[in-house]
Amino acid sequence: xxxxxxxxxxxxxxxxxxxxxxxxxxxxxxxxxxxxxxxxxxxxxxxxxxxxxxxxxxxxxxxxxxxxxxxxxxxxxxxxxxxxxxxxxxxxxxxxxxxxxxxxxxxxxxxxxxxxxxxxxxxxxxxxxx
Length: 130
Ligand code: THU
Known about the structure:
By secondary structure, this protein is an alpha+beta fold. The chain has helices at residues 3-11, 51-61, 84-93, 114-117; strands spanning 23-29, 34-38, 67-74, 99-104, 109-113. The protein has one domain (3-120): Cytidine Deaminase, domain 2, CATH 3.40.140. The chain is globular, with a radius of gyration of 14 Å. Tetrahydrodeoxyuridine binds next to helix 2.
């Protein structure tokens, strides 16, 4: 199964009664294992979580720490980009060269490196003078 197929499958389980916008994410970790996540909304809107956050949580819960590839998909007119917060979450576990593939359900695709998704990312080095 491709990461696109895995993301489409998990997207079906998204809980998005408030936005009506279902998102699926699938990532491959260093072991080769695929982890998936979907958005999970809440009536207290800010408590909702994104698909990417779910996939990352599943990876970390399984004992892995390194993303080698990530795909996000939604029924969007153009390939769906990760939100700002998710860009930072992805950058925590993916090197600058890792490819993030943004897709629409019809297959429209845009690929960006993590370094291009979040230029000037805040990183551990910024806390070096503590
Ligand atoms: N959403 C994601 O899950 N991932 C993205 O990359 C973009 C936005 C979700 C959050 C919310 O449940 C819904 O899409 C509308 O913003």
